[in-house]
């Protein structure tokens, strides 16, 4: 059975993938620096993983350690990354160093060291699309750029046609859509993709790139205030604190349950139809923020004060949801968990946790100080 190295394998998505691969009999090596921002200060590797995987507490930026970790590995699943869209706008070096240099280190090791790597799988992000795909009645498919601050200050949050300025209709984002990320995080994911494509193609190494949508589910970080609105809102509801709903609450995201994401990732290992392709991984549908809050309140049987403030963050997008027809056609992927069922499983898990974050307000204050939240 193949040996698989998973960078960032102790993270939320990584742990789910690891468990599925262990059930299939793969030999797993996890490489993770256990960042306190992501895992919390007192994170412990779950016992079932600690006993059954070869765990390396190392940093993706340490090339010498990475070189040793890659030895005798047949497949690399590269998940390790900094992931906070908002934080990336003012922790620029941190995101570039980890996401871009870390990926470059992996490719350096593959090219310049003896190894038996047969395939590399990259977790990318819907953030590479920026505002995604729209249709203008006059100009057809268009890709709006960053929304104007002057419009948003007036309460106009929807996108306009970048050619004529007229209202546009949202479309599902296909893999061949324009890439124009609106955050530093999105830029780093786009560069990761290009590095993998160019280098792997030059040496004949198969790759698979997955553009994950908003992944959620049992096991996600409840302590990281920079990413994951479901965790952030859950913390606020459980503490009885007010929820500040940005913009008008009608902004939408494609939420996909972590088990579906893990299943898609495993397909990339086992199905050569995935080789050298890029796939969206999502639910193929969208949910607005107001609806998210209402469903969470029902799941926790708690009401909390909500305020639609009109606040907005520079770098946030208005809408995005995935067209998943390509991954369905090529790999037979079809998400099994709908949003409401996923929220029920997530909330049941949250009830059992002791970790409640008090850092969300601090993260918002940081963005205000940097002029990135209005």
Short summary:
With 374 residues, the protein is an alpha/beta fold.
Structure write-up:
It is a single chain. By secondary structure, the protein is of the alpha/beta class. It contains 14 helices and 16 strands. The protein has helices at 12-23, 36-39, 47-52, 63-70, 85-88, 92-112, 149-153, 184-203, 229-239, 258-270, 289-300, 325-331, 339-350, 360-369, and strands at 3-7, 27-32, 54-57, 75-78, 119-125, 134-136, 140-142, 169-170, 207-212, 214-216, 243-245, 252-253, 255-257, 277-281, 287-288, 306-308. The strands form 5 sheets. A 7-stranded parallel sheet has the order 3-2-1-4-5-9-14, with helices on both faces. The protein has a 3-stranded antiparallel sheet with strand order 7-6-8, with no helix packed on it. It has a two-stranded parallel ribbon with strand order 10-13. Helix 6 runs parallel beside helix 8 (184-203). The radius of gyration is 20 Å and the shape is globular. The relative contact order is 0.14.
